[in-house]
Write a structure and sequence with these properties.
The structure is a homodimer of 405-residue chains. By secondary structure, the first copy, chain A, is of the alpha/beta class. The first copy, chain A, has a domain of 172 residues: Carbamate kinase (3-Layer(aba) Sandwich). In chain A, 34% of the residues lie in helices and 26% in strands. The first copy, chain A, has 13 helices and 20 strands. In chain A, the strands form five sheets. Chain A has an eight-stranded mixed β-sheet with strand order 3-6-2-1-9-11-12-10, with helices on both faces. In chain A, strands 13-18-20-19 form a four-stranded antiparallel β-sheet, with helices on both faces. In chain A, strand 11 and strand 12 form a beta hairpin. The longest helix of chain A has 16 residues. The relative contact order of chain A is 0.11. At the A-B interface, helix 1, helix 2, helix 3 and helix 4 of A face helix 1, helix 2, helix 3 and helix 4 of B.
Chain lengths: 405, 405
């Protein structure tokens, strides 16, 4: 009997009517002969309210207590959905993270799943009972409640799918699949039937926030077939699968953009060994993630060092750079938060030359200046001025032949 | 080092400011050199919202799922209060029912506490950490979440106080103690300094709803000294203690009233053996609690049988009586929901004659007709027409010399 995990996000369980809707969707899968586990998020808005309370009391709160408070959102939904399922004749029960248990490390507030014992769940599902699991939460050492960080319910669902050896993990969300780019910017964007884990990872990391990155990593490692689909429409979504399952590999599968980075330039950095280590060592110490880095060639013994960081890290980064200014010996620090990172992603890139060049040409034709470039095996990213974001995305979507006919 | 349990109800933790207030009160007890455990209810309104959701989905819901949903209210408060305490420098941590664990039976929705292991809590308190315990909840067999029923946090607090051998269990509430009667009816009502468990039980059972009855029973059985006091004013409350601790025993300690009963009279019941057993056996079968019962002497082979039940049980009782009408052979069933039960309570009654007579005389002077009488060792109750409630309470308060000077 096929076994599937279904995951519903906050907007899909926002009120009682939507919870009843979810129950009907689950019933359909049960009636079709599947063994089903369901992972639920908190009703939309619930988590924000809980987080706001915690932060109002103490913005430097104990993360273990934050977790005890915030995990209640998913607990409520799990119980309500179990009741809604029973009401329409589907045997069901709720499972909290500590009941499974879904064991995590002790990084409260952003814990990582260490281990899920699938056996009790499998036994329950094989007896014909739908398991309704509170997502986003687990059991940390010392029997404390842990949460997985924002979007963690996706990861809960994938971990559960791996633990119960599910045939598929369906992630129901408010979009109906993964598109070649953001349809709000490019109406001609096409829904992808399939996408590889690697591509999904690159897209997620550059701002296509449909799936939490860790859930994709986990799916890739555990070879869990993930489907992203709409909770409101009854149409097939996009399958996130192993590259081998994709017969026709596109050179470029999608165009992504991110506006959450800021650019920092250190002017007149002395061109001597160890300077880069000083700068990026200090930033790492302060927990500032650095993304793109470029260093121009040296002129008269100094150089300019440019890099990007998350916008939210900006105050921390500026404080850190001020501390090491004398040690580094740079003249000024230029900060530009008005930048966007545009990326083209595709596994077919590995065997095709000229992909980057198509990008540079398309941007040049629109007179868009490229500030920083970075590449990976299946991705080319550029940093541009934020005001050109939509123009650049549209130009690239057309240049790579992705527009729907 | 003295050890105390403090319990705060829903109105005392209704918002963040009140939670901060509670933290200050707890800090004061810690600063005074006490080891402290705190039991909290849900923020007022939270439980009602959760119950409403559950009932809207299915009014015949699975009680285990109801418990999973509803227990979140207390979980939220426990985490928030722990954070508020840490913020003002008081080491604290939250404990959920399953973490202690507070083991209960499997009567989900109204579970009874079976066992609390005090050892881990004592160790934690002795290390200087305030234990913030989510009230109202426990761990049922099968590792499911259980709730104790409305007002259950009082019982949680008393059970915890017994388990950690606390010197006192302080119940903070929106009144500042136990009064000789309802001060809204009798402005001259006096606050009692001390009251015995037995009196408190009688008062609670006839409508003075300050403490949950089960919490008083438990306190009596475990000899836990309970104090009822205000969370908003800083004045001593009322101690609920063993009778032996009360030196000056009042003949009558308080006057209570209840308007939640209905009177039923079965007319012309054949006066033969087994009839009462048929009637009350059937009602017991249908889970209808019968309170007062009177049977008039027989006239011409039939009698009238009058008794009272909880108003909410009325539809179920009427259906049950209709079913057995032929078997019993009564003529009609008269129902009167407009009745009130007035009770005078006092342990001194045991050694004083004439207490009931004072009551009957005082009511007669106000021309209040007594419909039913019932007595216990320390209580005399009468049923009267509901419209005389306030008049009767005031007359009795004066008649027993309880008015403040």
């Amino acid at each position: 009997m096929p076994r599937i995990v279904m995951k519903f996000g906050g907007t899909s369980v926002a009120d009682l009517d939507r919870i009843r809707n979810v129950a009907q969707r689950v019933k359909r899968e049960v009636d079709a002969g599947n063994q089903v586990a369901v992972v639920v998020s908190a009703m939309s808005g619930a988590t924000n309210q809980l987080v706001a309370w915690v932060n109002a009391l103490d913005d430097l709160h104990d993360a273990r207590e934050y977790d005890a408070v915030v995990a209640t959102g998913e607990q409520v939904t799990s119980g309500l959905l179990a009741i809604a399922l029973q009401k329409i004749g589907v045997p069901a029960r709720s499972w909290q993270g500590w009941q499974l248990p879904m064991r995590t490390d002790d990084a409260h507030g952003k814990a990582r799943i260490l281990e899920v014992d699938g056996a009790p769940m499998i036994a329950s599902m094989e007896s014909g009972q739908v398991a309704v699991v509170a997502g986003f939460q687990g059991l940390a050492p010392g029997d404390r409640i842990a949460t997985l960080g924002r979007g963690g319910s996706d990861t809960s669902a994938v971990a559960l799918a791996a633990a119960v050896k599910a045939d598929r993990c369906d992630i129901y969300t408010d979009v109906d699949g993964i598109y070649t780019t953001d349809p709000r910017i490019v109406p001609a964007a096409k829904k992808l039937q399939k996408i590889s884990y690697e591509e999904m990872l690159e897209l997620a990391s550059v701002g296509a926030k449909v799936l939490q990155i860790r859930s994709v990593e986990l799916a890739m490692n555990e070879r869990v077939r993930v489907q992203v689909l709409s909770s409101f429409q009854d149409i097939p979504g996009t399958l996130v699968v192993d590259e081998d399952e994709i017969v026709e590999k596109e050179v470029v599968s999608g165009i992504a953009y991110a506006r959450d980075e800021a650019k920092i330039t250190l002017r007149n950095v002395p061109d001597r060994p160890g300077v880069a280590a000083t700068i990026f060592g200090k930033l790492a110490e302060e927990n500032v993630n650095v993304d793109m880095i470029v260093q121009n060639i040296s002129a008269e013994g100094t150089t300019d060092m440019t890099f990007t960081i998350g916008k939210t890290d900006l105050p921390r980064a500026q404080a850190a750079l001020a501390e090491i200014k004398e040690q580094v010996g740079n003249s000024e620090v230029l900060v530009d938060p008005n930048v966007a990172k545009i990326s083209v992603v595709g596994v077919g890139m590995r065997s095709h030359a000229g992909v980057a060049n198509t990008m540079f040409k398309a941007l040049a034709e629109k007179s868009i200046n490229i500030q920083v470039i970075s590449t990976s095996e299946i991705k080319v990213s550029v940093l541009i001025s934020a005001e050109y974001t939509e123009l650049a995305v549209r130009a690239l979507h057309t240049a790579y032949g992705l527009d729907a006919h």
